[in-house]
Amino acid sequence: MIWQEEFECMSLDKLRDLQQKRLIELVKRVWDKVPFYKKLFNEKGVSPADIKSIDDIVKLPFTVKTDLRDNYPFGLFTCPVNEVNEIHASSGTTGKPTVVAYTKNDIKLWSVVMGRSIAMAGAQRGDIIQNAYGYGLFTGGLGVHYGALELGLPVLPMSSGNTQKQLQLMHDFNTTIITCTPSYALFMAEEAMDRGIDPRKSPLRIGILGAEPWSQQMRDKIEELWNITALDIYGLSEIIGPGVAQECPGKDGLHVFADHFYPEIIDPRTGDPVEEGEDGELVFTTLTKEALPLIRYRTGDITSITYDKCNACGRTLPRISKLKGRTDDMLIVRGINVFPSQIESVLLDIKGAQPHYQLVIDRKHSLDTLEVQVEVNEDIFSDEIKKLEDLQQHIQREIEAVLSLKVDVSLVEPRSLSRSMGKAKRVIDNRNI
Amino acid sequence: MKVQQLSIFLENKLGRLLETTEVLAQHDINIRAMSLAETKNFGIVRLIVENTSRACDLLRMHNFTVEITEVIAVEVNDTPGELARVLRTLHENELNVEYAYAFVERKQNKAVVIIRMDQIDRAIGVLKAEGIKTLTQQELYL
Amino acid sequence: MFWDKPLETIDCRSLQILQLDRINTALERIAATPGYKSFYDSKKYKIKPLSSLEQMKDLPFTTKQDLRNSYPSGFLVTDMEKVVRMHSSSGTTGIPTVIYHTKNDIDNWSSLIARCLCMIGMSDKDVFQNMMTYGMFTGGLGLHYGAEKLGAMVIPAGAGNTERQLKFIKDFKTTVVHITPSYALHVSEIIEQRNLLDGLSLRIALMGAEPYTEATRLKLEERLRIDVINSYGLSEMNGPGVAFECLEKEGMHVWEDNYYVEIVDTKTGMPLPDGEEGELVLSAINREAMPILRYRTHDLAFIYPERCACGRTHRKISRIKGRTDDMFIIGGVNIFPSQIEEVLMKLPQVGSNYVIILSKKGSLDKLSVRIEVNPDLFAGDLRHLTQLKETITRKLREEILINPTIELVEPGSLPPSQGKAVRVIDNRDKTV
User: Touching check for B39 and chain C: CB below 8 Å?
Assistant: First the structure.
């Protein structure tokens, strides 16, 4: 089903006209209302008068994640706080969260693009959605929730975790669509089989899976185990949350809702645009968002783009490839973005010690695990097991609070962590995604 | 008298305890008593050795995390009820034992109990008053 | 401030007419749904329109067990296609209960909550930090929708992560929080210790999901210089928004155009006059997907006989005085001892005896379970015991959704269970 055919199938010329009109308005708006942008534009020697066509977008400066943090909490808002209707937050690069804001219209926009995504995945009347993305500040849960409501489809607001209950309700309600991370979809299938349930016999027919990168092999496995169509959804809270781009059943790239989110692919070193089809860093400009629009926001995700019409579904919206990596050291564990610097800042706060650490990421029974190995030096060593265990639990609690993610903290002997060229290798990723 | 003990942090890794003892063996340091405490992912080995500070330096040179802790070594007759007498004395004086381990001295028919606790000085006094002997580091090696 | 003044100040006679009309509509739709009608058939009750509210007392009660028996199709009286949301009770042992909502039900529920929020002086200028769990638990999403309808700025913070909560309260100048009383005490202590109060804009705390005393309210109001508003709800009746205090802070208005309220004698089941304490029985009379009539809440309360000074005509119920069953509430989560028992008894390493201990750690509720280890399976090393402890913690967490502290004790060290042993020891000081 194509939820908004007039936008999703519009000719590229018309799409450009619409993008152009929206960009020109946006640039004026942020120039007038957000001092940060005025300053940034001035530094680049550009003003709204220079933006006459969509191609002029390359004249505009980039924005990055730290801009959000540096202008926290209200610095980048284009509207008074009382017009903001909802706040969400994701990980920042240190202990500070990245906060994003939505007006009533932004929530409507989000509902619409999520509605488009769910419809694009093949949802129809009669489908029942089991939403196993986390609810709350994380955008995954409420994003899918709003989209389902927009389409008028029933949703089980499961939130993440509690696999036994997920499986039970999936069975009892004949859920037909599951929304969760791809690794959790695999994990649930394996848990089901452990309990003697054949996942292939469930009425599930579609998985809308995202929040972490996954491969074609993983898709094959999920589709095989569940006997479903598994489709990729892409989004990030800075842009809106899930619903920025979505795969159709053609499985040949993710359609970007480019009437609202203007995509560019750039060379991450030079910042110059790359040719269509070439890999580079994905950059977005939110053309219609009210509370917190972003100009040329660098996502850190590596992908390529094509403007060829999709043969499978007929949509004209450009498609990005499945993500191919990151430009920075960000890790994605169980759908949650983790920066090693976040963990470092927690450890620095541990009294009287600056322990060395290493992150070990693994995938056990389809589920990501993050182990933080902390070296026990003489500053933090105690002869009493109780005290060491307290320390271990303290570190674990603090890290879990910052990441909103369950981690294992283990205490290890000093200097046993591998060092490469004097600089510690901080991350060991054993996952074979 | 107080006695010095080595506490060494160990990962639960194959051969780690062996490496500790090998470092000491290579340098001719005799181990008088030992106890190993383990949790799910790490352990602490506690040793009474002849030359504590030298052993400590050597182990640190071999990248171990080591701490010197103070304990008491109580000498008791190797007969039933003797250990209970020690513990009762401590208990009656509200002295709480953190951990303890013991070894037997065959030649003299004595046993030595190593006890780690807060308020070590008070404990020594209390035991003395009951006629219970605490050993010095030197006495441990007689 | 009124959200819907005509309805909130409706005269008694018109209210009764409206109630009767809605009850009869519900009955009509129940009668047209074979699965639901058979429930009344089994109770030998013949569904026909009521001619007066007097006849409500002849209608059979609905219990949690009845809802379970109807699972999963539930007492759904619309097509599944019209359903947009389901909420289910916590727990995986036994059969869960499920409540269905249509789009109109969600809209209506949101409006009822907007009424509550308006009643206590909230407006679109407020910044609302929702510190309740989101998802299947109705506390989070219920208030979320109501506050959005009102136009307030909503921070869907969820429960826990105190540092981040405090950061947001400060940075976003949060004016209203929705929080459990025990968590509020904890957060307020930290605010006091760190001397943060002067930098904050807090003015109201909405509190529900677990019982608390008037003394707790006063303590929090004084400590944080705010109004604490009592809120009551249960998922079978949508969730929060069933009854809410006005600024008079004496009793919670039940939205009687949506909920028919009775207090009954716990033994005879006969309705009691206003002012007398008994079991609260509620009917969701304005629900499209799933009307429920005469639901026994097991909560003890009374109805205030007199009119409220705020001008609303909807009657008020008292604070919840207790329970008629062994359910207890900890950290806002309803728990039956049988849920814990079922998890424990599935593990061979667990002996036959255990005790549940409720206590306070600082101001936070704590649940500990002391468990005797099965002597036949005691392996003697620490590592296995630690692992057993972790297994039990994880399994219990999956079941009751909160983190218990597990203490393994030697066989025979707990008082032996004689017939029906007292499994729950509640050491929480209720007067705090």
Answer: yes
Please count the residue pairs, one from chain A and one from chain B, whose beta carbons lie less than 8 angstroms apart.
47
Q: What are the residue ranges spanned by the domains of chain A?
A: 5-327, 333-429
Q: Is the domain C333-426 a CATH 3.30.300.30 member?
A: yes
Q: Inform me whether the C-beta atom of residue C135 falls under 8 Å from chain A C-beta atoms.
A: yes
Q: How far is B14 from chain A (nearest CA, A)?
A: 13
- The question of ipTM being above 0.90 is answered as no
Question: Helix, strand, coil: what percent of chain C each, to 5?
Answer: 35, 25, 40
C387 contacts in chain B (CB < 8 Å) = 40
User: Is B63 within 8 Å of A384 when comparing Cβ atoms?
Assistant: no
Sheet with C350-361: list strands edge to edge: C405-409, C364-373, C350-361, C424-426
Please state, in angstroms and rounded to a whole number, the distance separating the CA atoms of residues C419 and A237: 56
Domain boundaries along the sequence of chain B = 2-68, 71-141
Domain ranges of chain C: 5-325, 333-426
CATH 3.40.50.12780 is held by the domain A5-327: yes
Long-range contacts of B84-92 (CB under 8 A, 24+ apart): B85/B130, B85/B132, B86/B113, B86/B127, B86/B132, B89/B126, B89/B127, B89/B130, B89/B132, B90/B115, B90/B117, B90/B123, B90/B126, B90/B127
Work out how many CB contacts closer than 8 A connect A with C.
Answer: 113
Flag whether pLDDT at C432 surpasses 50: no
Nearest residue of chain B to residue C382 (CA atoms): B39
Do C333-426 and C5-325 have the same topology in CATH? no
Q: Which helix (H) or strand (E) holds B54?
A: helix B52-61
Residue C71 touches partner A, C-beta closer than 8 Å: yes
A360 CB-contact burial (10 Å; exposed 0-12 / middle 13-18 / buried 19+): middle
Predicted structure pTM score: 0.82
Q: Is domain A333-429 given the CATH code 3.30.300.30 in the classification?
A: yes
CB contact under 8 A, C386 and B38: no
Closest to B65 (Cβ–Cβ): which among A378, A384, A385? A378
Distance from CA of C415 to the nearest CA of B (A): 26
Contacts of A145 in chain C (CB under 8 A): 141
Distance CA B33, CA B104 (A): 10
pLDDT digits (tens), chain A, 433 positions: 899 999 999 999 999 999 999 999 999 999 999 999 999 999 999 999 999 999 999 999 999 999 998 898 889 999 998 899 999 988 766 667 889 999 999 999 999 999 999 999 999 999 999 999 999 999 999 999 999 999 999 999 999 888 888 998 999 899 999 999 998 999 999 999 998 999 999 999 999 999 888 888 889 999 999 999 999 999 999 999 999 999 999 999 999 999 999 999 999 999 999 999 999 999 999 999 999 999 999 999 999 999 999 999 999 999 999 999 899 888 888 888 888 888 888 887 776 556 788 899 998 877 889 999 988 888 788 888 888 888 888 899 888 888 888 899 998 887 655 544 445 578 888 887 6
Alpha-carbon Rg for chain A, nearest whole angstrom, is 22
- The CATH superfamily of B71-141 is VC0802-like (3.30.2130.10)
Report CB contact under 8 Å: A157, C84: no
Chains with 3+ CB–CB pairs under 8 A to A are: B, C
Which CATH number applies to B2-68: 3.30.2130.10, 3.40.50.10420, 3.40.50.10190, 3.30.565.10?
A: 3.30.2130.10
Shortest alpha-carbon distance between residue A344 and chain B (Å): 22
**What is the model's pLDDT at position A422?**
47
DSSP C361-373: ETTEEEEEEEEEE
Residue C88 near chain A (CB below 8 Å): yes
Give A378→chain B minimum CA distance, Å: 6
C387 touches chain A (CB under 8 A): no
Query: C5-325 has which CATH code?
Result: 3.40.50.12780
